[in-house]
Design goal:
Elements (H helix, E strand, L loop, with lengths): L1 H19 L5 H5 L2 E5 L2 E4 H5 L8 H28 L2 H4 L2 H24 L6 H10 L10 E10 L5 H9 L3 H14 L2 E3 L6 E2 H8 L3 H6 L5 E6 L4 E11 L7 H34 L7
Antiparallel strand pairs: 1-2, 3-4, 3-5, 3-7, 6-7
Helix pairs in contact: 1-4, 6-12, 7-12, 8-9
Length: 287
């Protein structure tokens, strides 16, 4: 046991050099054995492909030893099962056949569905589903529409940006975007999407509860004294826990649900059609 571990460890440390040294490439051609379990052997070439070029000797050794241990464990278990189980217990013919049929069925279903599935979901379909299932879209975490910026504490533009953001005027909002884009170290409106408060809190390096306690008149402002910066968030719209989420926030999930329903219907229709076809052709008969 110690001998092959030492052999593998030495091989792992030397592997980066072997992989880059053409002068001793003949060692790979001879393909020496680096580990053995019973009649099973593991060769150098089989292990060499596991280690990416440029991997350090220490990491190479870890990768090789992990693989060798896993390889040996599988074989030890398999050999023990072969020696201890009865002939009947080792007969897996029925299980393999069931697995084969299940796998073939799955692959054909996937092909059939992929050839026929309509993945385009209209806004009206999303709206109808949302209106009929609002009870399924209740916020468990507050979500918000927001803007966030990180800006130097001594910037003369901070108050101007805040006033423009909160004015509600489209032109003022555009002005705030433009000014913040050139004045702030970072500025984002999160793509104009509804986002979890947790995502905004992460930008402040704070937890959700601490962040929300600091909100004043839709603004959250936190001074970073270490770097002499100010983190500012403007949150004009927020949906709290227990309230119905906005449709825009749910749209992607609703589309996935509707496509999943279509997929299920296609598979069900396929099963029914195949059975009906088999009956008509006399291949499926109930006596």
């Amino acid at each position: 046991m110690k001998a092959w571990v030492s052999s593998v460890a030495a091989f792992a440390v030397a592997l980066p050099m072997f992989m880059s040294c053409k002068a001793i490439s003949s060692l790979f051609e001879k393909d020496p054995v680096v580990a053995k379990v019973g009649r099973h052997t593991l060769t150098r070439s089989e292990v060499a492909v596991l280690v990416p070029k440029g991997t350090s000797p220490e990491d190479s050794m870890k990768l090789v030893l992990q693989y060798v241990n896993s390889w040996a464990s599988d074989l030890v278990f398999a050999d023990m099962a072969e020696s201890k189980l009865s002939k009947q217990e080792k007969d897996v013919t029925d299980e393999l056949e069931e697995y084969r049929k299940a796998l073939l069925k799955y692959r054909y279903e996937q092909r059939y569905v992929n050839e026929r599935l309509d993945t385009i979901v209209s806004p009206k379909e999303v709206e109808n589903y949302y209106d009929s299932h609002k009870q399924d879209f209740i916020a468990t975490v507050p979500v918000a529409r927001a803007c966030f910026m990180r800006i130097s504490a001594d910037s003369p533009d901070i108050e101007a940006i805040k006033r423009a953001l909160s004015s509600g005027d489209v032109e003022d909002m555009d002005y705030a975007d433009s000014l913040a884009s050139v004045s702030a170290d970072r500025y984002t409106d999160y793509g104009g999407n509804w986002v979890s408060i947790d995502e905004i809190a992460a930008d402040f390096g704070m937890d959700r509860e601490s962040l929300l306690r600091m909100m004043r008149n839709s603004f959250i402002e936190v001074r970073d004294k270490v770097y002499d910066k100010v983190n500012v968030a403007y949150i004009p719209y927020m949906v709290d826990v227990g309230e119905v989420l906005p449709i825009e926030y749910c749209e992607a999930d609703i589309k996935s649900i509707l496509i999943g329903v279509r997929r299920h219907r296609l598979v069900s229709t396929l099963e029914q059609d195949l059975l009906e076809d088999a009956r008509e052709k006399g291949r499926f008969v109930i006596y």
